Amino acid sequence: MIIKMTPSNKGDYHKSNESFLVTGRIIPKFEMDCWTYTEESFSEPYLKQYENDEIDDSYMKDPDKAVFFYYADHQCIGRIKLRSNWNGFALVEDIGVSASKRTQGIGTRLLEKAVEWAKQRNQIGLMLETQDVNLSACRFYARNNFTIGGVDTMLYSKFSAAHEKAVFWYRKF
Questions:
Q1: Which end of the chain has less Cβ packing within 10 Å, N or C?
Q2: Per-run averaged pLDDT (10 residues), the chain, 173 residues
Q3: C-alpha angle with apex 7: 117 to 1, nearest 5 degrees?
Q4: What's the Rg (C-alpha) of the chain?
Q5: What is the pTM of this model?
Q6: Long-range CB contacts (< 8 A, 24+ apart) of 47-51?
């Protein structure tokens, strides 16, 4: 069951932020006005986890922002954080599914909820960013009809992840 974040369930926001295994990366290529990619496997996979970001009350009050939680057996096992973006797309700021529940279609259902939310706001599609080393996420977005719209090689320059590339994915309606 997918439920919008409210003051009573706001505490569930960080419950599905768990680590993931980095097993490789995508190598995007732009040719003839089209993005494609190949995959490279790493000989030594490693775990990565994103820091918990703060969630403010504007995601419950502002009609151009939302957080939806996915519940199973009264447990929050997934979330998606959205906002209307300046370019007419709905920006998926974050999506996460508990590690033990991945590959069960929960992320796809959360994206479907995001599509519904975006269409209600007359957005032209969804957009998001992930890193080239988040191979499972890149595969997930490709399976869910997203295409690469651009790559930023400098976005993470200040951080320990400086070797990672930001990959921007789009799904037009």
A1: N
A2: 96 87 96 97 92 91 97 95 98 93 94 98 98 96 98 93 92 98
A3: 50
A4: 16
A5: 0.93
A6: 47/19, 47/20, 47/21, 47/22, 48/19, 48/20, 48/21, 48/22, 48/133, 48/134, 49/17, 49/18, 49/19, 49/20, 50/17
CB contact set of 142 (below 8 Å; sequence gap of 6+): none
Reading the block at residue 71, the tokens are 């519940």
By C-alpha distance, which of 4, 115, 126, 142 is closest to 60?
4
Contact 126, 171 (CB under 8 A): yes
Q: Of 113, 116, 117, 108, which Cα lies nearest the Cα of 146? A: 108
Spell out the residues 6+ positions from residue 38 whose beta carbon is closer than 8 angstroms to its own: 26, 27, 29
Report the alpha-carbon distance of residue 114 to residue 66 in Å, rounded: 9
